[in-house]
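Review box. Two proteins, two foldings.
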Amino acid sequence: MNEDTFPLDGPNDSMKNDSLRTVCLSMLVIGSLISPAVAADSKKDKDKDELRLEDLYPEKGLFGPSASNAEFSHDGRYAAYLYRPYNERRHGSDLWVYDFKKSEARRITSIDMLSEFQRSARIVIDDRLEKHRKKAKSEKKDDDKDEKEDGDDEEKSDDENDSDDKEKDELTEKEREEQREIYMTVSEDDADAEYSPVYSGIASFRWHPKENKLLLISEGDIYLLEDLNKPKLARLTKTDQRESQVEFLPDGSGYTVRRDDTVIQTKFGEHLVRQLTPSLPSGENLSRYSLSHDGKRITLITRTNSRGGSRKVDIIRYRDRFAQSDSISRTVSDDKVEPETVRVYMFEFDGADTEEAPLLKVFEEKIDEPRDIISEPRWSLDNQQVTFCFFDQKNSDVQIRLATWPTEEELEKGLKEAVKEREKDFQKEMREAREKDEEDVTPGRRGPRGGRTEDPELVEHLAKIAYQFKHYGGPNTPSMVSPDFADDSRHIVFVSELSGFRHIHVLDPLYESVRQLTEGRFEVYPIRFSEDHKRLFVTATKDSPARQMVYVLEMESGELTRLNDQEGTFSDVAVSNDGKRMLANFVRYGDLTELVAQNEKNQVKQVTDSHPEDASRLTKIEPEFFEYENRHGHTISGMMFKPEGWKKSKKHPLLIYVYGGPLGNRHFVNDGGYSADAYFFQMYMAQKHGYITIVVDPRGQSGYGGLFEKSNYEQVGKPQVEDLVDGVQYMADNFNIDQKRVAISGWSFGGFQTQMCLYTEPEVFQVGIAGAGPTQWENYNSWYSTGTIGPSRTGEPDQEKYSLIPLAKKLEGQLLLVHGIEDTNVLFQDTVAVYRALLKAGKETHVELFLDPTGGHGLGGDVKRIGRMRKYEQFLLRTIGKGP
């Protein structure tokens, strides 16, 4: 206090002054009591808003599970899907159904429902009840202790909770319902119970073709759900064999299911269980099968015994007192590929009961390259034809094959030839047996006892090549060709990169002419046909390469209409047959992945709520998308985080995240790609330390056309370096980044790419973090390397010329090498080899190792994700420092 604050200028000044002093002292006392609480709340709010690695990378993960396997009922009213809420993320999924008429979702199956059949479900229920009892007793003890401390010594009865000890049969209906409420309510800490039993849930389901019934598979057995309003399961199988690929018959009268190498048919209400697949020729195993639309015929793909010849590679494990080695199989690019034979057959069931139906062989080919591919055969709607694709990697040939069911005359002729050949083989075997008898002291019949066998007659009726073309695009496209028939059962629809981008094409086999149905500098990925094959539902990057959205393609006109109103990325998409309703997972920056339903009025409703509150809070910051032209004129996509309050007048360090390799149809510049490295760490370094951070999809990535995806072939990493150098210059020109403080990081292929940048452009990239990078492509798996990196001769490690080892001596900046010692994908020896090369070149002060002794390709051993990010943060701050 001072006189200026409280002037003394009257006869009652002393009294007034005393009153003021009293009031002020009271305020100070009250303030001293309130201030700590207010300050604590203020600090708590500040801490909550502050970004911390501990929040971004929690031990159990930040996100919950998403819905999957969405599929519409025949009438389009319902869409079923598999899902489990966040608290149940440790367990299997249950069947849920969304009712478009009522605009509501219902859980159909549960642990309670499956416990009637499965012992494993009952064990989980008992575990939950036991934990609840223990928690209740512990809380009761605490209450009793508090009461005793308060002076209440009244003794409690020992049998207050005797209902806990009752046998289940003795429980009243009310007690049963109370127990059910307990075990159906999964607590928040359930996900931490790593050693507790797990509920299996539902593995797959199929809708009835004409009614709203479903077949389900759980723990390898089949169940029937007949009434959605009063859901109750009927168990159809109980075997040690695990059933898969269950399907209703076309008329819904029964179902088919695969058991090992056989396909079984069962009709409801009948005792007969019928094996649809015939006996296969010796040495052949069933790979895939496809039923005709009327359910009377089947195609089979078989393969001879699995290839041998894989080499053994030792992985060193440091988990015990002394190191131990485990051997893993690995086939590299210069290994000899042991050929196997793939065959396609057609078979009709009508004659199967009398064992007179022949087995029609329509295709046979030797598989002797790692990426030789055969697609699943598809039947025409009239059930008369089958189409499939075969890709010959060595010659880069894509063949679209067409097999037509033989006429009676063709079949009769084929059967005669088959019988003739079989009799010839039989006579040969008999002659050999007689000759053997004459040589032996003890003669005996060694040949078959007749000219007939129990196997079906094998008739050759080869599929013709309806269309053939060379593929020189991305390595993943041949597996996407997948031909299928249009509604007229004549034209064939397939995907190709003939135009440079993956688009839908229509083939007329009669004239061997092809019409491209979609076109443009974007890519199209089929979901499925409508039931009548007049519409094709697809996702496409038409509006943005960063977003896959849903479209309806009219097969007659080629009109491509966007179905969704929301801008973002859709996955696990289901569309009703009329193309008016949709159920799909949707994500974009600012919105987490959730299942959404869109009705015929284009009204959208969020169906699931999958993530904890922290996930939404920590993903509020959205990156900016940008594009730039590389030195060749190609458009390169990227996304960027800028620090809060960024000004172009200030120079900020630049941190780049890159992958650079093919990923099917995926890449990293995606709307809603909340990845640990590309989103969270980039966002964190921008907001926390003032970096400008970017993610770039250079040439070499998938999803931008064939030119991009094939860019690595015989020049691995070089196009990416060019694009990234151009990207740094773009950032300098437009955002004034500090070109003397540029860091780059990446994982797997990105770990290779990071090193490539530092070794070949040391003036542009001063710092790098390379995780699990394949530095010696000759040691990587042949399936990937022969399609992505380049050709190789048997016995000659030709891909050695793409190794980073000779380039390592050019390192001038600072490099952190990260690897899991137990990595079975990219071998740890790759990092050891490049580290040795760096040491030999005198670069020991330029390189550091960060190893996970028990980690795999994504680590996950002793080094947790948060530990990796702490190391990254510390390394970057130590090498290129903070922002301005």
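Next protein.
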Amino acid sequence: MTAAPTPPPALEESSTLAHFVRAMERMILAAVGAMLAGLLVTGSTEWGRYGSLAAAVALVGMSHRLQQDSAIRAARLLVMGIWIAVSVNLMIYAGVYSATVMIYPFLIAASGWILGRRWLRGVTVSTLLLITAVAWLDASGLWKPTPRAHPLLVWAELSALIFIMAFLTVWARRVLTDGRDRALSLSRALELQVAQVAARERQLVQLMDNMPAGVASFDADSRLRKCNQRYADLFAAGVDELQGQLMMDYVPKAQMGPLMPMWNKALAGSPQTYRRQNVHRITGARTWLDASLKPEFEGDRVVGLYVLLVDITDKVRAETELKALNDELEVRVAKRTAELAQAMDKLNESRDELIRSQAKAGLSAMVASVSHELSTPVGNSVLVASSLADITRQLQQQVEGNILKRSALLEHNKALGEGCHMLLRNLERVDTLLKNFKQVSADQASEQRRSFDLSEVVRGVVASLAPSLKSQSHRIELSVPPDILMDSLPGPLGQVLINLINNAYLHAFAPGQAGVLSIRAALRGTYVHMVVEDNGKGMEQEVLLKIFEPFFSTRIGEGGTGLGMSIVDSIVRKTLGGSIQVRSVVGAGTSFEIILPMAAPAYDANV
């Protein structure tokens, strides 16, 4: 959009004035030169005329120096100086008959054109008074001017004056032409600006009529100045019908009560926003409006209001429906939450049952293993007892037949001694197996809290697993110092160790590898740090991230259920109140670090 045209600068600040002053200085110097030539040619000895020429040159110098600061001041100096010089020359020489009288019209024109009306009136009146006085004095005989100058000198003066007047005429024409061109340019710019204003007015009207909201403008007396059709439609009226009316003349009285407090605050200078219901005057249709009142300021004074009314009936209806849906959703969520809570309780019960089942399954496997292990010493004991019975029976027969010899008695006694020793060794083996099994099975079955030595529990678990593990070439190394006394649950702790040992024997080692599984423990403050580590094949990162997830196993269908590590994690964290972390490097092995408190938190096995 074109900006409004800029008015021409003041004459005293324009470059045209500076150019005119410089040209006048050159014209004066040229006239001085012509007059000096005339004086020299005529051989004049009127030194006053030479002095006038010197004064003119000095005047030009002063004007040129002053022009550097202000062209208008230089112009004033030239006009005033030339007028004084001409007036002095008029009074000294030839009076009203002097050729310099022709300079006065030039000075009057220049002062009016350049310096304004004051200077025009001043120079004109002064010139008329001076000429009148000189003419009256000459006519009355009170003052007689000197004889006229030489014709050549007069010619020089007249030529200079004619040249100066011609310059003034050309300059005036150029200024007038420039002024005319500027006026035409301003006229065209004004026409363009008027057309642009009219176009903006049309665009504003179209914008207001096409806005999806009611827009209105009021004065400080609440009189409607302008509005669009949507605003008028809210009150069942036309735009022309509403414009000029007071707001309270067409707004229903029932709606004025809640509206006026907001309206008065806006007229006091505070913008307002509110929501109200509008009732159509003819149809009675109810709509919801979001209203915005913005004050119009002129300085610190409110001179009007701008009103924006947005129909939000659909939005309010949608909000109502959404609220109803939210209420219904909250009911559904509450119901679903209760169902999920029940499902979670059942899941927890299933998990605990699964843990107990896993423990029972481990215990059953342990029973089978111990039974198999007991079969050898028990069978040997039976065989030895049978042999001892035969020896005793033979000895009895020999005694009764009185055929017992001393050598035979010694032989029977030796056989009885060896048999008794063998029988005792097998029975001790049975006793050891039964003691280990009794303690481990009691802990596994009862899940009762008690004080125990960690070393004894770990060694007991390993001993109870030894019969089932001896078929493989791997070995278990223990580094658990004695006298680490814990107040915890040895049964769940044993289950953790059983699962970790079985998991290592099942997954950790490659076929044919004679692996080493180490179990270490150390006391650190009030916590026990246990490490179960193997030197097997390790795990990939994706397997490591899922190792504690239920039903995750790399050997599903090959003996793995995917529950062992999940049960380990659950027992360590929830039952024993500790934490477990796993680290693994492919090709280097896996390490489980378990941190347990010396005193386990309160635990209810029935929960």
